[in-house]
Amino acid sequence: MSYPQSGYNSRMSLVSEPHHARPDAYGFEETKQATGSKWHPRNWGRKTWIGVLAAVAVVIIVVVVGAVEGTKANRYPAYKKLNYTLKDTYEGTSFFDDFDYFSGYDPAAGFVHYVDRAGSQWLNLTYASDTSAVLKVDATNADSSTGRRSVRISSKKTYNEGLFVFDILHSPYGCGTWPALWLSDPSNWPMNGEIDIVEANNAASSGNQMTLHTTNHCKMNVKRKQSGKTLENNCWNGTNSNAGCGVQGSASTYGQDLNKNGGGVYATELRSDGIRIWFFPRSSIPSDIDTSANNSTSSTVPDPSSWGEPLADFPTTDCNIGSHFRNQSIIANIDLCGQLAGLEQFYSTESHCPGTCTSFVANNYTAFQDAYWEFRSFRVYQAQG
Ligand SMILES: *[C@@H]1O[C@H](CO)[C@@H](O)[C@H](O)[C@H]1NC(C)=O
Ligand SMILES: *[C@@H]1O[C@H](CO)[C@@H](O)[C@H](O)[C@H]1NC(C)=O
Ligand SMILES: *[C@@H]1O[C@H](CO)[C@@H](O)[C@H](O)[C@H]1NC(C)=O
Ligand SMILES: *[C@@H]1O[C@H](CO)[C@@H](O)[C@H](O)[C@H]1NC(C)=O
Ligand SMILES: *[C@@H]1O[C@H](CO)[C@@H](O)[C@H](O)[C@H]1NC(C)=O
Ligand SMILES: *[C@@H]1O[C@H](CO)[C@@H](O)[C@H](O)[C@H]1NC(C)=O
Ligand SMILES: *[C@@H]1O[C@H](CO)[C@@H](O)[C@H](O)[C@H]1NC(C)=O
Question: Where is the GH16 domain (predicted)?
Fold first, then answer.
C-alpha cells in the first residue's frame, strides 16, 4: 500500500514544486491548500484515497490482463523444420499385410458387417497391385437385409509422432456411405485421441472434414494458420455430442471433385508442436513428395516447412498434443449409415438421398460402384534423433 501512495505523492509534489520552494510560507500555504484545493492529495479524505487507489488498481489490472491475453492470443508454436527420414511404407502388393482387419460389431452403430481378411479376399473387397490398393463396399450382393459388407483396416504399427503422407487415387462417396482415413487407438479412446484426416458422408459434395476427438482440456480457439474453415473449437468428446473440433475443406478436397482430378495427397504431421494437415491436388503436389508407386526405397525427403499454410492447423497452444495423442494406428474404413451418415440431417437434407439410409443400403447394391478407396501409397516419416 505504501508504494503506490508514495509514488503518487512524489509525482504530485513535482507539480506543487513552487510551494515547497518557499519553506517560510509552508504552513500558510498548507492551510490555504487545505481550504483552497480539493485536488491536492494532502486534502483528500479517506474515501477519496480509496477511490483513487481503486482506480489505479483497476488500470493496472486492465493493462496486465490485456497484455497477458494479448500475448496468449498471439501464442503460436515454432514448428521448426524437422529432418525427416522414411520409416514405414504401405504400398504395392504387400499393402494389406501390415494391417489388421476389424471384424467386430461396429462401435459407430453402422448398418455394416466388417469382413475379416479372408472374407475380404473372397469377396474381393480388398486387393492390391504393384501400383495401388483398393478397399471397397460389397456392390455385388443384392441381399444385405442385416447390413452390407465392408472393410475396416488398422495398421499393426502405432505412432506417437511422424509425418504421414497419404497418396489417394480415389475417395468413396454415395448415399449411405461414411468413409474415413484416420489415426487413433480405438481400444484407448478417447484417452489416446483420434485424428480424422479424411472424412465425409453420403454425396460428400461439400468437401473433406478434418477433426480431433480427445478427452477434456483440448481447445482450438487460439491463433491458427490454416486455409480451412473452423467448425468447432472444443475437441473434448464430452461436448457438442462428440462432434470434436473440425475444420472443413472446400468441395475439391473430397469425393467426385477429388477423384476426377486423379486424387491427391493428404500429408499429416503429428508432433508436440501441433497437428497440421495439408491437401495437395494431383496437379500441385510439391516436388519433395515422391508419388512414384512401388518404391519403398524412395530417397525423396518431404519438408513441410516449405509447403506453406496447411488446410487444417491444430496447434498445441491450448491442447497438449503430446499427451492427448498416443499409440496411433492408421485406419481406413467405409462405414454405412450409423451415427453420422444415417442422420436425416446428412442423408436426406444435405445429400438428398432417397427413402431411409438402411433400406437404401440393404436393397440398392448397384449404387456402391463409387464406394471405394484407392490408395497409391502411405508413407510414414519420422524425425531423426
Ligand atoms: C537437419 O539437417 C541439417 C543439415 O543436415 C542440419 O544443419 C540441422 O541441424 C538438422 N536439424 C535438426 C533439427 O536436426
Ligand atoms: C477383384 O476386382 C478387381 C477389379 O474389378 C479385378 O481386377 C480382380 O481380378 C478381382 N480379383 C478377384 C480375385 O476376383
Ligand atoms: C466421452 O469419453 C468418456 C470417457 O472419457 C466416455 O465415458 C463418454 O461416454 C464419451 N462420450 C461420448 C459422447 O462419446
Ligand atoms: C515393383 O517392385 C518390385 C520389387 O522391387 C518389382 O519386382 C516389380 O517389378 C515392381 N513393379 C512395377 C510395376 O514397377
Ligand atoms: C525409387 O526412388 C529412388 C530414390 O528416390 C530413385 O532413384 C528410383 O529411380 C525410384 N525407382 C522407381 C522405380 O521409381
Ligand atoms: C502405448 O502402447 C505401448 C505398447 O503397447 C504401451 O506400453 C503403452 O502403455 C501405451 N501408451 C499409452 C499412453 O497408452
Ligand atoms: C435405389 O436408388 C435409386 C437411385 O438413386 C432410387 O431412385 C431408389 O429409390 C433407391 N431404392 C431404394 C430401395 O432405396
Answer: 69-342
pLDDT digits (tens, 9 = 90+) for 211-241: 999 999 999 999 999 999 999 999 999 999 9
> For 190-218, how does the pLDDT look when each residue is reduced to its tens digit (9 = 90+)?
999 999 999 999 999 999 999 999 999 99
Over its C-alpha atoms, the chain yields an Rg (Å, rounded) of 31
Task: Kindly list the structural domains of the chain, giving each domain's residue range(s) and its CATH number in brackets, ordered by start.
Answer: 2-74 (no CATH), 84-383 (2.60.120.200)
**Which triple of cell numbers denotes residue 69?**
491475453
Query: d(Cα 23, Cα 21) in Å, to the nearest integer?
Result: 6
Whether 327 lines ligand 6, by a CB cut-off of 6 Å, is: yes
Task: Give the dihedral sign, CA 129/125/116/336.
Answer: positive
Quote the Cα angle for 278-283-377, to 5°.
60
Closest to 355 in 3D by CA, of 370, 369, 344: 344
194 is catalytic: yes
Measured CA distances, 307 to 1, 52, 228, 289, 310 (Å): 55, 55, 15, 11, 8
- 72 phi and psi angles, rounded to 5 deg: -60, -45
Q: Tell me whether residue 344 is one of the annotated catalytic residues.
A: no
Q: What pTM was estimated for this model as a whole? A: 0.84
Query: What residues flank ligand 4, with Cβ below 6 Å?
Result: 92, 130, 294
